[in-house]
TrEMBL record:
Residue runs in coiled coils: none
Boundaries of every HD domain copy: 75-213
Tree of life domain: Eukaryota
InterPro entries in alphabetical order: dGTPase-like, HD/PDEase_dom, HD_domain
Organism: Eucalyptus globulus (Tasmanian blue gum)
The protein, known as: HD domain-containing protein
Length: 472
């Protein structure tokens, strides 16, 4: 990844998408990624509500700041960034193809508001809340923050009597759900290309990724050589779908590769996952007393739930929260679950991979004089891909030759470069010891599990003896 340059992230002047009159009525904000952005009057009506302001208290990257101290940016600033880029993207399409596509002020406003509100229903601690906590306390919950976002949109409109066209609200909610399993069938939407901008369910290229990739790289001190501006300048609608110039194939590949690199080095960093595993345990133990999971059923209550739940657990004197408090104290004192080892699932085993469990490890323990229990072990199965699992996401993208051409086509990656990957997903199995004195026994059991499952030790090297003997 190349050097990061903030100056390069400033897009064209605000006058490219708004009239002078619009700007006089807008609020001027300086964003540390995109530079000067302007919030229009309708957007401000949503922003200046307690439901939206809650996003200030949700860290974009959850507990990642325990490893990357600068990663303390919030869903609030990310949402403003997506709002801005959504407006830039649809305005560029209007500038280049407005008459042909029939893009009007209604469309521009709708896409911008969808970008602003796409994460308004997000849970605490990044995706940990819905992907790891809720399934444990609700028995395999299939709850998604996008569904809550659309409920909160309705709640904000009703609660604050926002004067907005009901048709616009309907389309905003559809755009928020566009990449989820609750998306409407394509044939039921007009101007389908507009649904590709905020949350693209067709191929994964959207302004949500444009913003969080740039913002997260900056916050964590990483370089980012993916330039989303090139894609926004060259995109074109063909057959009701946003397509990209063929020469931008590698730019798009860099986007997916940069995202995968963020997952590997930041979002699923072994120490970050150790903290998250402990936080999930603390939340699960506190749930019966604090009823955290009950908040997801009512948007009137849900907006009150944010990252401050940690402070509630830490400061409450209630004996029912003692186990959770103790876990949070361990996190504060850096007495984390000990990372024992990891391995990448062999490529030929990925298709039929079954998630490894604590029971698998405990059942593989050796006769070492230590008897392991499931509650002594933590296992995490980390999937890192290019957004389409084992498939190449670029196969879903349509390209065009040049601006004189009306033909769209896909590009096989072997026509571009033989250096591009032929596999698009990693599955990494990691095991942790909840007590430092058990690192050795758990590491041995983990190695034995690999031998039983694959006939080889798939890990890179054995757990260092010094780590096995460490007792805190």
């Amino acid at each position: 990844m190349g050097a990061y340059c903030n100056d390069d992230l400033s897009l064209s002047p605000a006058y490219s998408f708004a009239s002078a009159r619009d700007l006089r009525l807008s609020k001027h904000v300086h964003d540390n990624v995109h530079g000067n952005i302007f919030l229009d009057p309708l957007a401000l009506k949503f922003i200046d509500t307690e439901q939206f302001q809650r996003l200030r208290d949700l860290k974009q990257l959850g507990m990642t700041n325990m490893v990357y101290p600068g990663a303390v940016h919030s869903r609030f600033e990310h949402s403003l960034g997506v709002y801005w880029l959504a407006g830039e993207a649809v305005q560029k399409l209007k500038d280049y193809q407005g008459l042909e596509l029939g893009i009007d002020h209604f469309d521009i406003q709708t896409v911008k508001i969808a970008g602003l509100l796409h994460d308004v229903g997000h849970g605490p601690f990044s995706h940990l809340f819905e992907r790891e906590f809720l399934p444990l306390v609700l028995g395999g919950s299939n709850w998604h923050h996008e569904e809550m976002s659309v409920k909160i949109v309705d709640h904000i409109v009703d609660e604050h009597n926002i004067d907005i066209d009901p048709e616009m609200v309907k389309k905003v909610k559809e755009m928020i759900l566009a990449s989820s399993e609750h998306s409407l069938p394509k044939g039921k939407k007009e101007k389908l290309f507009l649904y590709d901008i905020v949350a693209n369910g067709r191929n994964g290229i959207d302004v949500d990724k444009f913003d969080y990739i740039a913002r997260d790289c900056r916050a964590c001190g990483l370089g980012c050589n993916f330039q989303f501006e090139r894609l926004m300048e060259t995109m074109r609608v063909l057959g009701d779908e946003i397509c990209y110039r063929a020469k931008e194939y590698l730019t798009i590949h860099k986007m997916f590769a940069t995202r995968a690199d963020l997952y590997r080095t930041v979002y699923t960093h072994p120490k970050v996952k150790a903290v998250e595993l402990m936080l999930v345990d603390a939340l699960v133990k506190a749930n019966d007393y604090l009823h955290i999971s009950s908040y997801i059923h009512d948007p009137c209550e849900y907006w009150k739930l944010d990252d401050s739940i940690i402070k509630t657990i830490e400061t409450a004197p209630d004996p029912e929260l003692k186990e959770s408090r103790d876990l949070m104290l361990r996190i504060r004192r850096r007495n984390l679950y000990q990372f024992c080892n990891e391995y990448a699932v062999p490529k030929d085993k990925l298709e039929h991979f079954k998630a490894v469990t604590t029971q698998d490890i405990v059942c593989s323990q050796k006769n070492t004089g230590v008897t392991l229990k499931e509650e002594d072990v933590a296992v995490t199965n980390v999937r890192i891909d290019l957004t389409r699992g084992r498939h190449n996401p670029l196969e879903s993208i349509n390209f065009f030759k040049d601006y004189e051409s009306d033909e769209k086509f896909t590009i096989p990656d072997d026509r571009v470069s033989h250096l591009l990957p032929t596999s698009y997903q990693d599955m990494i199995v990691r095991v942790y010891a909840k007590k430092p004195e058990l690192v050795g026994a758990i590491s041995d059991a983990f190695e034995n599990f690999q031998l039983k499952t694959y006939g080889i030790k798939a890990q890179v090297h054995s757990t260092p003896e010094k780590k096995k003997q460490r007792i805190s």
